[in-house]
Structure formats: structure tokens, C-alpha cells
Amino acid sequence: MNLYEITTRSLSGQPIGYHQSSSSNLRTESTRYVQDVLSNGIARTAASEIKPEPLFQAPAVPAEPSRELLTEKMLVDRWVCSVARLQRWRTVGEGPPYLKIVGKVLYRLKDIEAYEEASLVRKVF
Fold first, then answer.
1. Is the CA virtual torsion 90, 95, 101, 106 positive or negative?
2. Hey, which residues does 104 pair with through a beta bridge?
3. What is the pLDDT of residues 11-24, one digit of tens each?
4. Any residues with CB less than 8 A from the CB of 98 and at least 6 apart, and which?
5. Do residues 106 and 71 make contact, with C-beta atoms less than 8 angstroms apart?
6. pLDDT confidence tier of residue 2, bands split at 50, 70 and 90
7. Which of 31, 92, 99, 125 is the most exposed place for a label (fewest CB within 10 A)?
């Protein structure tokens, strides 16, 4: 059935002029029929479309990579303290062990966790 036949026939398949209804009802019925045919065609086309596969599949990356070394800023954020406190601890020999590589201060995560464990206060009653 072509578009002309769709627009000139009612839902019952009879020519539009065949009904004794008003012309506005006929146009509404014809318009609905055209919309149904078009939406069904679009749905069939979308369902039969071949979805292209991506050329490159990126490996799954965790939201935040685990780091073995922490910078001064990262430790400050973790402990909610100041950079000056960490610097003072290094000067007087307190605080967790640290590395100094090419002038940059780094803390090993295992040392930080060990320091936190040693600093844990256990209440004795």
C-alpha cells in the first residue's frame, strides 16, 4: 500500500469518502492510520539495525587506582592535617618513615598503615 492509498482509506479499509462521517473525523482517522504505519516502520527499522562494535575495547579500570606511594598532599588529605606538621615531624624525626626521591617527599602506603595501626588508641577499662 503506498502513501496515497494510506491517506485516502480509513481504518476499515474503505475509501474515506465512503463513510457518512464529518470530514474532520475522517482526517483524524486517516492521520492516526498514517502515524501508526510510520511508527511501526520506524520501530522495525530500528530493531533490524546492526549495532557496530567499538574498534577498541578499553580494559576495565578501577575508579581509583591503588597507590603504593603517597605524596605529602595525599597524606595531608588522608589525615586532615597541615603540610607544616608533616614537615616539622620530618625535621625532628617523628611521624611515619618517608622517602626522598629527586627532592620529592613520598610515603609508602604500607608504612602509613603501620604507623596508623601503631597510633591506634585502645581503651582499657
1. negative
2. 101
3. 555 555 554 555 56
4. 90, 105, 106, 107, 111
5. yes
6. low
7. 125
Tens of pLDDT along 7-64? 555 555 555 555 455 556 656 777 777 778 777 777 677 666 677 777 777 666 665 5
Which three-class secondary structure state does DSSP give residue 4?
helix
- Tell me the whole-structure pTM to 2 decimals: 0.47
Distance from chain centroid for Cα 88:
42
* Cα–Cα distance measured from residue 97 to residue 115, given in angstroms and rounded to the nearest whole number: 9
What is the radius of gyration, based on Cα positions, of the chain? Answer: 37
Q: Provide the grid cell at 62.
A: 578501577
Q: Which helix (H) or strand (E) holds 85?
A: helix 83-92
Q: Identify whether the C-beta of residue 107 lies closer than 8 Å to the C-beta of residue 83.
A: no
